[in-house]
Amino acid sequence: MGLGLIGGSLALSLKSAEYKVIGITRNKETIDSALKTNAIDKGFTELSSEALLDVDVLFIATPLSQIISDIKKIGSFVNKEIIVSDVGSTKSDICIFAKKNLPQNVIFIGGHPMAGTEKSGFTFSTQNLFKDHAWVLTPLDESTKNRNAVALLKKIIISAGAIPVISSYERHDQAVALISHLPLLVSLGLCQMARKRDQNEIANLTAILASSGFRDMTRIGGGNPQLNFDLISSNISQLSLILPKFCNEVENILKLVKENPETLKKAFNEISKWQNDLYDKNGKNTLLNI
User: Fold this and answer.
1) In the predicted model, what is the mean pLDDT of residues 64-90?
2) Which of 39, 69, 105, 199 could pair with 34 as two cysteines, CB 3.0-4.6 Å apart?
């Protein structure tokens, strides 16, 4: 459900793995494009009993701000057991809502593929988007029903090229606040400083000289504005805890620059080794394995 970058890429990867894929999206042109590129077997422009008739596993790949409203609709359209997962980048609000509101025949397992680009829309979908990337699953409990659902989802995720990682939804949101949402705020802050020409007499020169280092550090801040806003606003409780700690780290680094440059050099060496150990020569996380 949803055939944007994530939903479209999932459809393409699962079709190539010989799954039967049904696409649901409001845009008829997107359905036509998905059928033409063999991303789906059948398409519907709205969620309905007919659309879900032959569906055993439903992935909700609509925008983050829309996922909860889409979850609300599911129960009225299914009278059989169905597994439902989502691709939202924060999990607590979604999982808590699903746990409280979905009927017993709907088994909900939260999900978050750690893949994507700054682009959006089916046009940018690619079969290999998830290859060698983590895909987090956040089951609501340890029941046999949920364990069986997780086992099936892991099989599907591996077929899409991703590497399944199991977590609670609370721990997931704590982790992505640090490695995904905080960098987005830092990117925003750097861009804001660089572009305020009226407050910075060297801003014009800054813009002229900005090259690959600045581009790489600020790339995520220049992505989809609505998506970026949704990411930050959906995890504000965790960011409120982490941001002061980050500011404290920056202050400590500045103190090292002024008072103990040798210790700062040691810190750079330690981080360089940590990064080299974390990623292989192709940029793949060495801690991920199937």
Assistant:
1) 92
2) 39
pLDDT tens-digit readout, 124-154? 999 999 999 999 999 998 888 889 999 999 9
Helix (H, G, I), strand (E, B) or coil at 58: strand
pTM of the model: 0.86
CATH of residue 221 = 1.10.3660.10
Longest C-alpha distance within the chain, in Å?
Answer: 69
Specify whether 9 is located in the same domain as 74: yes
SS percent in the chain: helix, strand, coil, step 5: 55, 10, 30
Structure tokens at 188: 């925003």
For residues 263 and 260, give the distance between their C-alpha atoms in angstroms, rounded to a whole number.
6
Q: In 10 A of CB 38, how many CB atoms?
A: 12
Q: Residues 91, 37: one domain?
A: yes
CA distance 262 to 256: 8
Domain co-membership, 26 together with 141: yes
Domain that holds residue 264: 260-290
Whether 37 and 139 map to the same domain: the answer is yes
**H helix or E strand, kind and range, residue 57:** strand 57-60
Tell how strand 82-86 and strand 57-60 pair up.
parallel
Same domain, 99 and 33: yes
* Top-ranked range on mean pLDDT: pick from 15-24, 109-118, 191-200, 253-262: 15-24
Give the model's confidence band at 198: pLDDT under 50 very low, under 70 low, under 90 confident, else very high: low
